[in-house]
Amino acid sequence: MRSARRCAPPLRRRWQALPPTPSRSQSRSRAALPDVRRGPASQPRSSAVTIIGGRGRSIMDRRTNFQEAWGMTIKLHTKPLITLLKLQPQLETADERTLSLYLPVRAEGFDAAHYDLLLNHLAAEYKGRLDEKQAKVLQSELARLRTHLKLVRPAGGPGIAAFSNESLGLQSLIRLPESVPPRIEVGRPLLEPLELMLRRLPPSLVVVVDKREARIFASILGEVIPLQHVTGQSVRHSRAGGTSAPSNQRKAENRARANLKRVVEMIDKEVKNGEFDRILVSGPGEARAELIHELPKPLERLVAGHLSASLDTPPGKLMVDIREQVAVISRREEAG
Q1: pLDDT at 22 (0 to 100)
Q2: 3-state class of 321 per DSSP?
């Protein structure tokens, strides 16, 4: 038996001696393919120049289209960023003529002269590193952003990200929950700083509800975006006695349950569309508890907490309340 074993060719040799088969040829072709997790090294990349202000440093960085750079792993690694791109779809389709801008927000309030000086300093450092075509993009898009900043007058947050591309009708300003160094770039939208922030501060679906009405918002970074407004049947609990009282009570409860089921349908739709990983619920305690009870198990597991915002608050103030309360929750989660 021992001699027989010694005479048998090693497994590796026997494998090599076999005629080629589809499975073997496939395995070898797979081994020759580049690893997509490292990015498509063989594909050409477009160059871009980035200036980070405040310290007088310049960084030459070669970047590709965001989806090309991450290839097949984009859904595995950047789900919060996908949520942002679904709420801001133009950022995904913007081209090389886009101006990206990151700025800290002045704590003392908006001052146009302050932002003019800051933008002039960033543009002066950056312009010398651009070709003629890029320099024209910088000049035209920066003028659009200056005008937009003066209209929006950013305040109430530590930082902002802005994107401008006149050819595509893109002009977006995103409030950030924390300060950022001044930064400017011409090219495809600079999304990496947002991605890093979103990994620590994931987006939330916020539901403000009572037994008749609900408002659904997306809370992402420092922004609160209205998504749905659901108005159901009127729910009135009769205080009158008599034999009809139990029947009236059941009718009111059935109407309230029907209203909440409609809200659940809207929540399910928005979670799937926006790929949200967590839900925050606000409203009177009873309505909040009944809504959570009506949620199917997969949605119930996404409920991460509750807020104290109320539908009695005017819509503008309601969004401010949500922004402030979500920021408190995010700081608490980071701290502990």
Answers
A1: 44
A2: helix
Which residues lie across from 279 on neighbouring strands? Answer: 205, 303
Residues 6+ apart with CB under 8 A from 193: 102, 161, 180, 183
- Report residue 181 as tokens: 């160094």
- Show me where the domains of the chain are located: 46-199, 201-335
Better pLDDT: 252 or 258: 258
pLDDT of residue 264: 94
Q: Would you place residue 246 in the very low, low, confident or very high pLDDT band (cuts 50, 70, 90)?
A: low
Handedness of CA 320, 326, 330, 335 (dihedral sign): positive
User: Residue 183 pLDDT > 60, yes or no?
Assistant: yes
Kindly report the three-state secondary structure assignment for every residue of 87-122: HCCHHHHCCCCEEEEEEECCCCCCCHHHHHHHHHHH
Which architecture does CATH list for 46-199?
2-Layer Sandwich (3.30)
Mean pLDDT over 24-37 rounds to 38
CA neighbor of 213 nearest in space, from 198, 191, 193, 235: 235
Q: How many residues does the chain have?
A: 336
If one counts every other C-beta atom within 10 angstroms of the C-beta of residue 176, the result is: 23
Which residues lie across from 306 on neighbouring strands? 281
> What's the pTM?
0.70
Q: Give residues with Cβ within 8 angstroms of 315, minimum separation 6.
A: 215, 226
Note the CATH architecture for domain 201-335: 2-Layer Sandwich (3.30)
For residue 186, list its beta bridge partners: 99
Name the residue type at position 54: G
Find out whether 235 and 256 touch, Cβ atoms under 8 Å.
Answer: yes
DSSP reduced 3-state for 184: strand
**Does 46-199 match 201-335 in CATH topology?**
no
Query: And the tokens for 61?
Result: 């960085």
In angstroms, the CA 263 to CA 295 distance is 10
Residues 107-152 pLDDT 10s: 888 899 999 999 999 999 899 899 999 999 999 999 999 999 999 9
